[in-house]
Amino acid sequence: STPAAVLSAISAGGRQGVLFKGGEHIETAGNVDAVAFDKTGTLTEGNTRLTDVSARGAVSGDGGSVRGELVAGESLTDEQLLAIAAAVQSRSEHHLAEATVEAARERGLEIPAATGFEAVVGKGVHATVEGRTIHIGNPRYVRTELEGRSVDGLEAGLDAVRDLERGGKTSVLVVEETDDRLRVLGWLAFSDTIRADAAETIERLRERGVEQIVMLTGDNERVAQYIAEELGIDEVYAELLPEEKVDHIEALQGRHEAVAMVGDGVNDAPALATADISIGMGGAGTDVALETADIVLMSDRLDRLPYAFALSKETRRTLY
Ligand code: ADP
Ligand code: MG
């Protein structure tokens, strides 16, 4: 049967916004000496907003009605670019997609219909809009999905994306494909708010003896570095697919007694399942992440994490 000390720790945790899904997790959580954090939605709020729209060689806005109408070879306005991107992204549930559609709606743009939508995990999406295939994705998408084909305006596009990423903004290229050619139509950038309690949480964990703290993210390397610097995390692994997050957890397990993974997304679920102890975000977390998690931080309070580990350690001490 469950020791009384464990039961009372579970109920103390509950009052402090920490949901332990079972007594055995209290024992493991007391031993954590390495913590891996997902970035988007975990260290950040996950309230991704579109910050920049830039049509390549855009004609200046004429103030007239703007529809997302494409004419081959013609330059687009920023608003036309946004409307076309929103058409493709209205088929996706990704946070970048939702932010794109929201920005188009806020500007009152008419969003054209899209057909033949397809997503490439960790890279981007494409669909047909008004007879043309529109690709939206990161440089990796361009490299692998449009492999070897020449893309008009690619150098300028990649330069712009790199600059935006250095400032902490996740950025994607919009590429148009017609029968025989590909050209960059422009690019979009997004940003997200770092959680107010994230930096302090990292500091507390270090003070409490967590030896290694790492960030595991699907996002771009430069964006990840920017956020990590803000938070005082010195070890960052970026542009990871879900299985690659698992590989990093396993590598940490080779060097530590108990490895914790904190995440909110579907793409974190395999890594959460692999970690010795998994922590989900109660407010923003997806169902899959929350089901997989051993501990849930209610209301997304990251600062409850050092508390949860300390409570577990104390409880263990009374047991042995
Ligand atoms: P994250 O949750 O960190 O964004 P993902 O694996 O979901 O991780 O996505 C990684 C990257 O893949 C994104 O930063 C983006 O560059 C690209 N990507 C994924 N989905 C989309 C999409 N719907 N539209 C554009 N880019 C996307
Ligand atoms: Mg996430």
From TrEMBL:
Keywords: ATP-binding, Cell membrane, Ion transport, Magnesium, Membrane, Metal-binding, Nucleotide-binding, Translocase, Transmembrane, Transmembrane helix, Transport. GO terms for molecular function: ATP binding; ATP hydrolysis activity; ATPase-coupled monoatomic cation transmembrane transporter activity; metal ion binding. It comes from the Archaea. GO terms for cellular component: plasma membrane. It is found in: Cell membrane. Belongs to the cation transport ATPase (P-type) (TC 3.A.3) family. Type IB subfamily. This is Cadmium-translocating P-type ATPase. It comes from Natronococcus amylolyticus DSM 10524. The chain holds residues 300 to 619 of 669 of the full protein.
